[in-house]
Amino acid sequence: HSNIDASYAERVIFIKDGRLYHEIYRGEESQLVFQQRITDSLALVNGGSVNI
């Protein structure tokens, strides 16, 4: 799935190895700020590199 598409949602959940790993809420953030938070979270989930 695309981090750009996900940035339009109110909540994004990250699943790793079949388990809930992390979730973030958009709140009052702009779509661009939330997109960056999603990208940063993907880097965390992927061990420091974003491979989408």
Automatic annotation (TrEMBL):
Name the record gives this protein: ABC transporter ATP-binding protein
Record keyword Nucleotide-binding present: yes
An example Gene Ontology molecular-function term: ATP binding
Keywords: ATP-binding, Nucleotide-binding
Organism: Staphylococcus aureus
